[in-house]
């Protein structure tokens, strides 16, 4: 029988990439498949939580019993999450949000013949996680850190800069892990600096391990 240890919790999960339009047919994005976030949504639902999944474009079926909100851009994802923050008790930010977007979105398809020396003008998107952290009213916040080196140092920086309770640090260069894979490996670092290393395993299994750690934190100590 599944544990129902998340009943009573309302969990907001973000998943997938964002797409930042260049023109009506082109966009900037990344390699996120959504699998990590969907696994988290499914695991939390199976353990008794009410779950809302805010997802960028993916090829995955909607998880049963989960309310799905589909978005495209970082700005839409930010709005969808911010709107639901006060409803939630826990937020898990596994989406791979674009850090930059084209400054201008062309109304018509850019024509190759008109572009002799094409340059994309970019501007930063807002940091959704840092924003949610600034607005929170007691919610537990879980962030991710996707790194390609110096995992712990970068992850600790993100934990502090974004003001989260738990960060899931994954080295996305690990063979068989990270973007697109059914498996992942991660190091969890919590707000007190406690570290736990979770070697390669299915994203569903990792999702349950993340939920275990988050539930322990939710049950202890007053949040900042
Ligand atoms: O989707 P899959 O194919 O299953 O792959 C899973 C994954 C590799 C995408 C996932 O495990 C993962 O690492 N997700 C976070 C990806 C990411 O954007 O990491 P980051 O280190 O760039 O960002 C740190 C944190 O800030 C993340 O929680 C991110 O959601 C958040 N963020 C980032 C930028 C931004 N503008 N706003 C944010 O909230």
From TrEMBL:
Q: Does the keyword Lyase apply?
A: yes
Pathway assignment reads: Cofactor biosynthesis; coenzyme A biosynthesis; CoA from (R)-pantothenate: step 2/5; Cofactor biosynthesis; coenzyme A biosynthesis; CoA from (R)-pantothenate: step 3/5
Q: Which family does it belong to?
A: In the C-terminal section; belongs to the PPC synthetase family.
GO terms, molecular function: FMN binding; metal ion binding; phosphopantothenate--cysteine ligase activity; phosphopantothenoylcysteine decarboxylase activity
Annotated DNA/pantothenate metabolism flavoprotein C-terminal domain residues: 7-214
Domain of life according to the entry? Bacteria
Cofactor annotation remark: Binds 1 FMN per subunit.
Enumerate the Gene Ontology biological process terms.
coenzyme A biosynthetic process; pantothenate catabolic process
Record function comment:
Catalyzes two sequential steps in the biosynthesis of coenzyme A. In the first step cysteine is conjugated to 4'-phosphopantothenate to form 4-phosphopantothenoylcysteine. In the second step the latter compound is decarboxylated to form 4'-phosphopantotheine.
Q: What is the required cofactor set for this protein?
A: Mg(2+); FMN
- Stated name of the protein: Coenzyme A biosynthesis bifunctional protein CoaBC
Entire-sequence positions represented here: 186 to 409 of 415
The annotated region (Phosphopantothenate--cysteine ligase) lies at: 11-224
For this protein, the Enzyme Commission number is: 4.1.1.36, 6.3.2.5
Keywords assigned: Decarboxylase, Flavoprotein, FMN, Ligase, Lyase, Magnesium, Metal-binding, Multifunctional enzyme
Q: Which residues bind CTP?
A: 99, 109, 144, 158, 162
Please state the gene responsible for encoding this protein.
Answer: dfp
GO cellular component, as recorded = phosphopantothenoylcysteine decarboxylase complex
Q: Does the keyword Lyase apply?
A: yes
What reaction does this enzyme carry out catalytically?
A: (R)-4'-phosphopantothenate + L-cysteine + CTP = N-[(R)-4-phosphopantothenoyl]-L-cysteine + CMP + diphosphate + H(+); N-[(R)-4-phosphopantothenoyl]-L-cysteine + H(+) = (R)-4'-phosphopantetheine + CO2
């Amino acid at each position: 029988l599944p544990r129902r240890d998340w009943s009573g919790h309302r969990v907001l999960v973000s998943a997938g990439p964002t797409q930042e339009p260049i023109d009506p047919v082109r966009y900037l994005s990344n390699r996120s498949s959504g699998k990590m976030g969907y696994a988290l949504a499914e695991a939390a639902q199976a353990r008794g939580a009410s779950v809302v999944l805010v997802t960028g474009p993916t090829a995955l079926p909607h998880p049963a019993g989960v309310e799905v909100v589909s978005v495209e851009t970082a700005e839409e994802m930010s709005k969808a999450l911010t709107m639901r923050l006060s409803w939630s008790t826990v937020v898990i930010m596994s989406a791979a949000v674009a850090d930059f977007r084209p400054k201008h979105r062309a109304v018509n398809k850019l024509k190759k013949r008109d572009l002799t020396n094409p340059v994309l003008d970019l501007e930063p998107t807002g940091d959704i996680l840092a924003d949610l952290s600034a607005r929170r009213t007691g919610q537990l916040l879980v962030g991710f850190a996707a790194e390609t080196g110096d995992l712990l140092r970068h992850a600790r920086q993100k934990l502090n800069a974004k003001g989260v309770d738990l960060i899931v640090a994954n080295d996305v260069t690990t063979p068989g892990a990270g973007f697109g894979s059914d498996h992942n490996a991660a190091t969890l670092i919590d707000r007190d600096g406690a570290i736990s290393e979770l070697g390669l395993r299915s994203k569903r299994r990792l999702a349950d391990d993340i939920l275990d750690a988050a539930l322990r934190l939710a049950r202890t100590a007053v949040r900042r």
